[in-house]
Write a structure and sequence with these properties.
Oligomer: single chain
Number of strands: 0
Order of helices and strands: HHHHHHH
Largest sheet: none
Distance between the termini: 59 Å
Helix content: over 70%
Shape: extended
Structural class: mainly alpha
Number of helices: 7
Radius of gyration: 20 Å
Strand content: under 5%
């Protein structure tokens, strides 16, 4: 089947559901805001428990990653993301979800070839290029700006 670019674009527009951005954007804003408020609440809680700022921030990150992975495992993160859209991609929780989701999806294939091989299928490029960029920036800083 030979389809022109214009015919393909018309077909995609016909089949794709229309986005209701007037409702999706505020929902993403509210859900993302709630996640951030939970993070700030955890930081305040850990600070009041006597931790210094850096330790409280570290425990907040650990808690958010744990909760995100737990909610992913229970199938609840997907339900939140269905309504919150991009608001659930708040960096640390979205990243934890991106790591946990493929691990759960491929667990039937075993721990080595399933979970071990697929756990970083989505998050792997982020880790790889983030690490490579940090090495490059560090090298530039070391050679030119120190």
């Amino acid at each position: 089947m030979n389809v022109s670019k214009q015919q393909y674009d018309t077909l995609v527009k016909k089949i794709s559901p229309n986005s209701k951005s007037w409702i999706d954007i505020p929902k993403a804003f509210v859900i993302g805001g709630i996640i951030c408020c939970i993070g700030q609440g955890l930081t305040d809680l850990y600070s009041r428990a006597g931790f210094d700022d850096k330790t409280a921030a570290a425990w907040t990150s650990i808690t958010l990653v744990f909760l995100s992975a737990l909610l992913t495992g229970l199938g609840l993160y997907e339900k939140i993301a269905k309504h919150g859209g991009a608001g659930t991609l708040v960096p640390i929780t979205g990243f934890a979800n991106a790591v946990a989701s493929p691990a759960l999806e491929f667990k039937a294939e075993g721990f080595v070839l399933g979970v071990g091989a697929k756990i970083f299928a989505i998050a792997g490029p982020v880790i790889l290029y983030g690490t490579a960029a940090s090495v490059l920036y560090g090298l530039i800083y070391y050679l030119f700006l120190r």
